[in-house]
């Protein structure tokens, strides 16, 4: 019996118009009524998924969320952290210097400070709007080397960010988890951080075994959790590389793929 279901949001839970179908809401509700823990696994901060958590009625003492691609696992109601794996201010300063060399825009999520950037740009504004959070303009000079930084992001037009990614030094990939979550978002996290680790740490907290876990996703930042789960499910619209490693392929996000998978394997 499966006891934990972790679901990616964009391209998975959410349809192309960013809504959740009634069938998917119903399947998630029925799974939770059976005692299954259902969690959102996202690159966003908790503020960016609060509306969805409210819509799914997942704001009780028994609900959790995997935010920042697994860097932070927390209770949705109290925001109490179950696990937190960050990088440091010195990493931000290093990556800031690299962003200048590559001529790309940068912002970071800094603990107790929120979304910080040297200058606002198109895709920092997109980030803020998606997550309903404020932007703090700061040149990073007031961030100390030992301050906790949840993640750093290079954000820019795909035709700028793509070539910049190709020019990243080898040491960057050795030091950090590097995730291209969208063509305009390139994320840098603690080397140990990925959604798979987040799922693993939550499962350990809940006393749930690996073979009792289902994960659903569509993109490269879902790879680790799909590989880790007892049943890793790729969406019909997933990257081919994700379909290749999945145990099962469901329908697309616009065809109730999440609902169909939960109905088949949980209900």
Written description of the protein model:
This protein is of the alpha/beta class. The chain has 2 domains: 4-84 and 193-265, HAD superfamily/HAD-like (Rossmann fold, 3-Layer(aba) Sandwich); 87-190, Hypothetical Protein, Haloacid Dehalogenase-like Hydrolase, Chain: A, domain 2 (2-Layer Sandwich), CATH 3.30.1240.10. Helices cover 34% and strands 25% of the residues. The chain has helices at residues 22-33, 50-55, 89-102, 122-131, 158-166, 170-175, 195-206, 223-228, 240-245, 257-265; strands at residues 4-7, 37-41, 64-67, 72-75, 81-84, 87-88, 105-110, 114-117, 135-137, 148-155, 176-182, 185-190, 213-217, 231-234, 248-249. An 8-stranded mixed β-sheet has the order 5-4-3-2-1-13-14-15. Strand 7 (105-110) and strand 8 form a beta hairpin. Helix 1 runs parallel beside helix 10. The protein starts with a strand and ends with a helix.
Instruction: Tell me the CATH architecture of the largest domain.
Output: 3-Layer(aba) Sandwich
Distance between the termini: 10 Å
- The low-confidence runs, each spanning 5 or more residues with pLDDT under 50, are none
Compute the number of strand runs.
15
* Average pLDDT number: 95
> What is the CATH superfamily of the largest domain?
HAD superfamily/HAD-like
Query: Helical residue percent?
Result: 25-40%
The CATH topology annotation of the largest domain reads as Rossmann fold
Give the helix/strand class: alpha/beta
Number of helical stretches of at least 4 residues = 10
CATH class of the largest domain: Alpha Beta
